[in-house]
Design brief:
The chain is 49% helix and 18% strand. With 192 residues, it is of the alpha+beta class. The protein has one domain (45-187).
Length: 192
């Protein structure tokens, strides 16, 4: 003989209805218990803001690292531009001073302040200002020929390379020898 289960004794229909009612309320009771214990229903905006803050912080770290990498690239390019411009200016001044038409009138001072190139015959001075912070060099000649020329190191869109731009933002194509010719031509009051 098989023993009878305790639920099957008495009113089976009553036990079944209690069982069904109890099982249908379990998800609601669990939700209420969780919300009452930790107030998670009221913390949704706070959690969303916390998640946004965390995302913003990580994004800022990435942006900071990218900016640092870009600045290091531009710093290195500026140092190279500065050395190359000095080399071209010194070489061209030396070559021009050997020409009989020029007659040794150009006096380059590319090491100490004020950095520039002077003309012995007229006293005209081409000042050269290297700005490492802005990654640019400015050539300025006051009298008699008013002249200002700016060359700037700019990052390419990908941030992994750079290019040279004039004051209008146009590319000079990396031709720093041409820049040296232009500024010396202005110092010598030559028409471009």
């Amino acid at each position: 003989m098989i023993p009878a289960h305790p639920l099957l004794r008495g009113n089976v229909a009553e036990y079944m209805s209690l069982l069904l009612i109890g099982s249908s309320h379990v998800p609601l009771d669990a939700l209420c218990a969780v919300s009452l214990q930790t107030f998670r229903l009221f913390q949704q905006p706070a959690r969303r803001l916390a998640a946004q803050f965390e995302h913003s912080k990580s994004k800022q770290l990435i942006n900071d690292a990218s900016a640092l990498q870009r600045d290091q690239l531009l710093d290195k390019a500026f140092v190279g531009m500065r050395a190359e411009l000095r080399e071209h200016l010194e070489k061209q001044c030396e070559e021009l001073n050997l020409e009989p038409q020029i007659g040794n009138i150009l006096v380059p001072n590319l090491g100490d302040d004020p950095i520039g190139i002077a003309r012995r015959d007229s006293g005209t001075f081409l000042s050269i200002k290297f700005d490492a912070t802005l990654h640019k060099v400015t050539f300025n000649c006051g009298e008699p020929a008013r002249f200002k020329y700016v060359v700037e190191v700019k990052p390419k869109f990908n941030g992994r390379s750079w290019w040279y731009a004039d004051k209008n933002g146009s590319s000079i194509g990396g031709h720093l020898e041409y820049v040296a010719q232009e500024v010396l031509g202005a110092l010598l009051e030559l028409d471009s």
